[in-house]
Design goal:
The complex is a heterodimer of chains A (about 180) and B (about 375). Chain A has three domains: about 1-80, NADH-ubiquinone/plastoquinone oxidoreductase chain 6, subunit NuoJ (Four Helix Bundle (Hemerythrin (Met), subunit A)); about 95-120, no CATH class; about 130-170. Chain A contains eight helices and no strands. Chain A has helices spanning about 5-25, 30-50, 50-75, 90-115, 120-125, 135-145, 145-170, 175-184. The termini of chain A are far apart. The longest helix of chain B has about 35 residues, at about 5-35. The relative contact order of chain B is 0.14. The chains are: A mainly alpha (about 180), B mainly alpha (about 375). The interface of A and B includes residues 40, 56, 57, 65 and 76 of A.
Chain lengths: ~180, ~375
């Protein structure tokens, strides 16, 4: 893979800056819009890697649809800028940084073997490889080599949708009242 | 002449087309609405009121663009820019014509030639909603915020319908490349092989949804002045307001050009294929290379005259089809009243979305049986 171009480096810096702003901004709306910035610049990075399909889908799905919902909800709730108390004592900061770092290491340790088994690390080091070829190659890969992860993801998404429905309906009392009626 | 220079040149051409369409559309909209309502309309500035857009622009330049108290300064200024940039970028993937032969090399008349042009167009136009949301929220005005929120939910709902309609279109053509889609609609493959014959339902869905996507009547609830003053751009004045208007017209142009490309054969001249057109022009004696630069410049720049005229005719064909859709935008605006918000949502989710899914199922069955040969 060729060395990153100036344009790619600018995009990387932009993506990382936006990612940092998501966490560091006090105003939730600005955080949500920074998240959009991260997702959009990541999509542009895919374009510079000549993975046009992945880039277009990234912008269409993540930047165009999902983060609109984030921004929409945050605006609808009209959240006020939060005041986070900065921990004053050194031990708190040290403990916080250690906890964060160890969480990152644990995540990496658990994800790396999975990536290795599916051969994703080689794909990453050699550019985007097969994924850059276009929609046909990607759909063939999805329905053959990565069939299991694809289906598992679909199942996870279904489960999360069901979870959202359950959480959303929690305040409605019909089930509870019928149960109590039976108890009487 | 390298490909990079050519692409840059075409980007400028696309920008000029976009910027020129705005004053033309302003005249068409103002005079057209007057004609439909039996008024005179603005007819004092220039001949037949043709200079009215210039007078409008001068007025807007000299108005003060104010910043409301407690507005979010950065987003308030960013929002109009976000309204203008995505439609222009989306316009760049539309194929404008066949190819021109310069110095013996063929150059395609498409600013950005992407293998996934269709997806790219949808992706970029889906970013348009952020300008409305950002404007609504950053204005620190309840009417503006409500306009922004209305627009977000409306555009997301109708984007899903557009996506579903596009699935069946892609299944019919078997490609995401807009250039390839136009080529498949060329005459010769059976008379009019245009998209609206192959995919009438998808055509209708996209047409209806493009009104909602560009926030035009009858779906202009984000700026419903009877309820929300002016919706998301209540607090904007002067040039920042002009940018919102500009963005709306360029979005209309992009949506019209997209529909023309997918369903009306793009740049194809009706009943004539690109090769037929070129050989006809060559037969007229245009089959010669003309040098554009005088000899002392050093570099040579010869253009094949036949291909140049062919591309010009194709560009005019594309613009004519685009102008048809633009006129329908104006026509509908001054004909239909505004929907109620629940009617708008009902139409999107309960009528258009099921129709889109039905269209996918029908297309799937037809493609399957055509491939099997019954």
């Amino acid at each position: 893979m060729a060395a990153p171009s100036v344009f790619q480096m600018i995009l990387c810096v932009l993506a990382l800056t936006c990612a940092l702003l998501v966490v560091l901004q006090r105003n939730p709306v600005i955080s949500a819009i920074s998240l959009l910035g991260t997702l959009f610049t990541t999509g542009l990075l895919y374009f510079t890697l000549e993975a046009y399909f992945v880039g277009a889908v990234q912008i269409l799905v993540y930047a165009g649809a999902i983060s609109v919902l984030f921004v929409f909800i945050v605006m609808l709730l009209d959240l006020k800028p939060t005041r986070v108390r900065v921990p004053g004592r050194a031990p708190t900061i040290v403990l916080g940084v250690t906890a964060g770092a160890s969480f990152f290491v644990l995540c990496a340790l658990s994800v790396l073997p999975v990536l290795k088994t599916f051969g994703l690390l080689d794909t990453m080091s050699g550019g985007l490889g097969e994924a850059a070829e276009g929609p046909l190659a990607i759909s063939v890969l999805l329905l053959s080599k990565y069939m299991l992860p694809f289906q598992v993801t679909a199942l996870l998404l279904l489960a999360s949708i069901m979870g959202v429905v359950v959480l959303g309906k929690r305040t409605l009392p019909p089930r509870v009242s019928s149960f109590e009626k039976r108890k009487d | 002449m390298t490909q990079t220079v050519w692409s840059t040149l075409l980007v400028v051409v696309v920008a000029i087309i976009g910027m020129t369409a705005i004053p033309v559309m302003l005249v068409v909209e103002r005079r057209g609405s007057a004609w439909m309502q039996r008024r005179s309309g603005p007819n004092r500035v220039g001949f037949w009121g043709l200079l009215q857009p210039i007078s409008d622009a001068i007025k807007l330049v000299f108005k003060e663009a104010n910043l409301p108290a407690r507005a979010h300064r950065f987003l308030f200024i960013l929002a109009p820019a976000l309204a203008v940039i995505p439609p222009f970028v989306a316009l760049a993937v539309i194929p404008l014509g066949g190819s021109i032969s310069i110095n013996g090399t063929e150059f395609k008349m498409q600013a950005i030639d992407l293998s996934v042009g269709l997806l790219f167009f949808l992706a970029i136009t889906s970013l348009h909603v952020y300008s409305v949301l950002a404007a609504g929220w950053s204005s620190n005005n309840k009417f503006a915020l409500m306009g922004g929120l209305r627009s977000a939910s409306q555009m997301i709902s109708y984007e899903i319908v557009i996506g579903i309609a596009m699935v069946s279109v892609v299944m019919t053509y078997g490609t995401l490349d807009l250039r390839e889609i136009v080529r498949l609609q060329e005459a010769g493959a059976g008379l009019p092989a245009w998209g609206f014959v192959l995919q009438p339902l998808a055509f209708l869905l996209l047409w209806v949804c493009s009104f909602a996507e560009t926030n035009r009547l009858p779906f202009d609830l984000p700026e419903g002045e009877s309820e929300l003053v002016a919706g998301y751009h209540t607090e904007y004045a002067g040039l920042t307001f002009a940018l919102f208007m500009l963005g709306e017209y360029v979005a209309m142009l992009a949506a019209s050009a997209f529909m023309a490309t997918l369903f009306l054969g793009g740049y194809n001249v009706p009943f004539v294929s690109g090769a037929q057109l070129l050989s006809f022009l060559n037969g007229l004696g245009l089959d010669l290379n003309v040098s554009l630069l005088p000899a002392f410049v050093g570099t040579t720049l010869t253009v094949h005259l036949g291909s140049l005229v062919a591309v010009a005719i194709q560009l005019i064909a594309l613009l004519t089809k685009t102008m048809f859709f633009m006129w329908v935008f104006v026509w509908v605006r001054w004909t239909l009243p505004r929907f109620r918000y629940d009617q708008l949502m009902d139409l999107g989710w309960k009528a258009l979305l099921p129709l889109g899914i039905l269209n996918i199922v029908i297309t799937m069955l037809v493609t399957f049986f055509l491939a099997k040969g019954f």
